[in-house]
Amino acid sequence: MAQKTKLYYFDGRGKMESVRWLLAAAGVEFEEEFLETREQYEKLLKGGSLIFQQVPMVEIDGMKMVQTRAILNYIAAKYNLYGKDLKERALIDMYVGGTDDLMSFIMTFPFLSAEDKEKQRALIVQKATSRYFPAYEKVLKDHGQDFLVGNNFTWADVHLLEAIFMVEEKKTDVLSGFPHLQAFKTRISSIPTIKKFLEPGSQRKPVPDDKYVETVRRVLCMYNDIKAD
Amino acid sequence: MSGKPKLHYFNGRGRMESIRWLLAAAGVEFEECFLETKDDLTKLQKDGSLMFQQVPLVEIDGMKMVQTRAILGYIAAKYNLYGKDLKERALIDMYVEAITDLNELLMTHTFQPADKKEQHFATIVDKATNRYFPVYEKVLKDHGQEFLVGNRFSRADVQLLETLLMAEECKPDILAKFPLLQSFKARISNIPTIKKFLQPGSQRKPPLQEKDVPKLMKIFH
């Protein structure tokens, strides 16, 4: 009997969302325990489940894994979404690194003041349209294939799709200069596991709101100010 | 015949230092091209070498690799410093990602404004001695082996050593309460390739001095 995969995090996107996307893309069922109170978090800490005292934490294959990148690497490799050799892996890691950097601008967004939010929104759009999207548009244009790496569906495709959706939430027509990315988005969204994840009722989390911010601050006792980049 | 890997960065540690450590640990010779001015960076950006307009850039095996993690992952796997299977890799990744978090704190210390420096220093010491070092001390204590993962030298050992040394530069007695980390440090430092890298004249870079910060800002901002 296979062990269940269980995610420990807040009921919201944050750093766990990429893990949800990847598990869903791989067709892997998972459970979730949502941190609502400080007491729950302290219980996890005292029980030794969080080796660096942080979430995300994912119970998978008998391990209590922490560190988002470690978790994602493991899942990608286990479910054959990490390319067929070292060089494909290198490309995937490069591409994922870029989308990760792009999404990190969005990660702090909910915690900013209203004024800083507007500044950050402009920064996100600027970075997306002048640095990141052109890079992926070029990759797709140059090889003319359906997927980013090795003519096969990989983690890089999942991560880019996630990033595209997140940036579009900040500016709906942000893909207008990128025809290959538009086609990519349609194509990857139609993959059955992804399509299912995009439907209402899935474990995909909505855009973070004030309630999410309040929960995170309360659980982590994180009341210091976060500034825009 | 493939050429040596070529590193493009400024003449200092920053995000390239972990790459220098890993190549050195693997016994791989490499060349370096130092960015001295903003024009040097602009030139690389314009000629399409930098996928995301950023350094580090490492030319290796016909690829122009960017993104520090990607570069480190490739080198580690190529030179068998990434564990023997998925589960060892998972442990190595967990350990290395946390070390990277601590490294980020150490790296940004020189850039802190004067009024934030003391607070930042306190944060570094607190995180190092209460969050990170206890974990690695316990790992070594629990299995009693010489290396962090799989009883074999891996990138996790290299990156931990790098960080321990950087932390000591920040506060010389920071390892006082961690006897196993102290012996780990001595042991890993004695590995021939590492020993060589720790000697004067190697490609290891010194800590960033405050006087060098303005020049750096000119290149990157």
Automatic annotation (TrEMBL), chain A:
User: Which terms under GO biological process does the entry name?
Assistant: glutathione metabolic process; xenobiotic metabolic process
Q: Which Gene3D superfamilies match?
A: 1.20.1050.10, Glutaredoxin (3.40.30.10)
Matching entries from SUPFAM superfamilies are given as: GST C-terminal domain-like, Thioredoxin-like
Q: Which InterPro entries match?
A: Glutathione-S-Trfase_C-like (IPR010987), Glutathione-S-Trfase_C_sf (IPR036282), Glutathione_S-Trfase (IPR040079), Glutathione_S-Trfase_N (IPR004045), GST_alpha (IPR003080), GST_C (IPR004046), GST_superfamily (IPR050213), Thioredoxin-like_sf (IPR036249)
Q: Recorded E.C. number(s)?
A: 2.5.1.18
Q: What class of enzyme is it?
A: transferase
Q: Domain GST C-terminal: where?
A: 85-209
- Domain GST N-terminal stretches: 3-83
Q: Write down the species.
A: Ceyx cyanopectus (Indigo-banded kingfisher)
Q: What top-level branch of life does the organism fall under?
A: Eukaryota
Q: Which UniProt keywords apply?
A: Transferase
GO-annotated molecular function: glutathione transferase activity
Q: Which PROSITE patterns match?
A: GST_CTER, GST_NTER
> What name goes with this protein?
glutathione transferase
Q: Which family does it belong to?
A: Belongs to the GST superfamily. Alpha family.
TrEMBL record, chain B:
Report the residue ranges that make up the GST C-terminal domain in this protein: 85-208
Give GO terms: molecular function aspect only: glutathione transferase activity
Presence of keyword Acetylation: no
InterPro entries, per database record: Glutathione-S-Trfase_C-like, Glutathione-S-Trfase_C_sf, Glutathione_S-Trfase, Glutathione_S-Trfase_N, GST_alpha, GST_C, GST_superfamily, Thioredoxin-like_sf
Q: Which UniProt keywords apply?
A: Transferase
User: Start and end of every GST N-terminal domain?
Assistant: 3-83
Can you supply a Gene Ontology BP term from the record?
A: glutathione metabolic process
Enzyme class, one word?
Answer: transferase
Q: What is its EC number?
A: 2.5.1.18
Similarity comment text for this entry: Belongs to the GST superfamily. Alpha family.
Output this protein's name: glutathione transferase
Which species does the entry assign this protein to? Answer: Ceyx cyanopectus
What is the taxonomic lineage of the source species?
Eukaryota, Metazoa, Chordata, Craniata, Vertebrata
Q: Tell me the name of the encoding gene.
A: Gsta1
